[in-house]
Design a protein that fits this description.
With 167 residues, the chain is α+β, with helices and mostly antiparallel strands. Helices cover 21% and strands 34% of the residues. The radius of gyration is 20 Å and the shape is elongated.
Length: 167
């Protein structure tokens, strides 16, 4: 954080950055992303608060440039009998998570979802924060059990299982 403004953001040649009103627009070959930069114009902020906001802005700008050029991917694995992705429709994911009913989750606008297997859900987006929030929302429906390890896990997530009863 100390040397955050000494680092440089490398912007590819096919990515464009420009300011439109109070928004910083980043355009790639197929996607575009907007930032609200109105906080930089406020005069009531202390120096420390402005420094924190600008460093957060710098990192989110860095993430959005990476997102526009490459995109972010997150994978969720369904472990256990009966935990699976039933179907992916236009705006909804239909999940079977061991409840007496199906769980329907609305897909946000800038996230694309597909399931190569019934036990694997792949999510792709340009916005890292939106993607992580949506993954956390899906993950919260059935967190992994600490005794058996069943539930929804992130790909390559390691769970340390507790021992059961001792006789």
């Amino acid at each position: 954080m100390k040397n955050i403004f000494k680092t440089k953001i490398k912007i590819p040649t096919f990515t464009k950055l420009f300011v439109k009103k109070n928004n910083l627009v980043i355009e790639g070959p197929s996607n575009s992303f907007q930032f609200d930069i109105s906080f930089l114009k406020t005069k009531n902020l202390s120096f420390l608060k402005l420094k924190q906001l600008s460093s957060t802005f710098f990192r989110s700008l860095q993430n959005s440039v990476v997102g526009i050029t490459l995109g972010f991917i997150s994978r969720l694995v369904f472990v256990g009998v009966g935990f699976r992705v039933e179907s992916i429709e236009k705006n909804f994911i239909k999940l079977k998570l061991g409840y007496s009913h199906f769980v329907f989750i609305k897909i946000p606008q800038h996230i694309s979802v597909f399931a190569p297997k019934k036990t694997l859900l792949v999510l792709k987006s340009v916005d890292k924060q939106l993607l992580k929030e949506f993954c956390a929302r899906i993950y919260s429906f059935k967190k992994p059990d600490i005794y058996k390890g069943k539930g929804i896990l992130y790909k390559n997530q390691i769970i340390f299982l507790k021992k059961g009863k001792k006789k």
